[in-house]
Amino acid sequence: TRFSRITGTGSYLPPRRVTNADLAADLAQRGIETSDDWIVERTGIRARHFAADGVNSSDLAFEAARHALEAAGRNASDIDLIIVATSTPDMVFPSTACILQNKLGIAGCPAFDVQAVCSGFVYALTVADAMIRTGSASKALVVGSEVFSRILDFNDRTTCVLFGDGAGAVVLEASDTPGLLASDLHADGKHVGILCVPGTVSGGNVLGDPLLKMDGQAVFKLAIGVLESAARATLEKAGRTDADIDWLIPHQANIRIMQGTAKKLKLPLDKLVVTVDQHGNTSAASIPLALDAAVRGGRIRQGDTLMLEGVGGGFTWGAVLLDF
Ligand code: ACO
Question: Which residue ranges form the domains of the chain, and what is each CATH number?
Fold first, then answer.
């Protein structure tokens, strides 16, 4: 049998770091009141990074991909599949994956985007794993990259304090031993309205509102339940238990959701990888960013069992269990 295994991780944050105090000062100029205390207490976020004007998801993806390739000891020319998870693509089309492919100086391999908002990375990893298992690919680049700052409404304090920009990437290769153990993906489109960017382009104009709208409490309530059920489903499929998880790497949206999930899985909080404090919510980029931070920080080691979990607009959710 053929399996897939992560052989390298990489990430990239745009250099401009904005603390809660910086953001509160900016918002105060618009007559909007927020504070470091409010943001930290409700979300755990202390800072986020924002990309400079003209820097797009493909630029962040390129830097993250370079680092992942280097870690895997591979050249871009070795890659035979590119999947980018993003909800903030450079263009309506072509895909950010095609733009990234060109920036990497390669051509010919399939390249496409996956759009599942904050679940995008677990969706993309699952698709890449399936393509590797069936022999359609053998060395995939799987990237999550976002410039959420472009779709934030800086007149809405309930959302603009939550998100940031960044990218994370992995090289996923065919292997005789597993790697990716199990995955569990879901969507429920009846919840479109609780988290969306409702605008689109039509007739040369933007039709509808192109900024992020979120009913935070509705998202919060849904998130904890579905994250637990997806995690349990992957464990069951893989014949493993809670006790086998070395590291929980959930989508980094809100520390309270993350800690709630860890508790439901009976995991001590020191097994929870946390970057939300420094990155904010970077949507599809948050899981590979957190993964890379924990790998480079020496916490995650080869052989560790990782539970990756995403939840986001759609509503979409899912989990991937893997041996690193
Ligand atoms: N600064 C100061 N006050 C604020 C701010 C702010 N930035 N934002 C809201 N408030 C005020 C509200 O106006 C409200 O005031 P009121 O009581 O006078 O009306 C008060 O704070 C409480 O607001 P709530 O919305 O009840 O705050 P809550 O405790 O629910 O926290 C939050 C809001 C952080 C958004 C929370 O609901 C949450 O984290 N939800 C999940 C969101 C999430 O994780 N989304 C992403 C997952 S999917 C994805 O990543 C795309």
Answer: 3-175 (3.40.47.10), 180-323 (3.40.47.10)
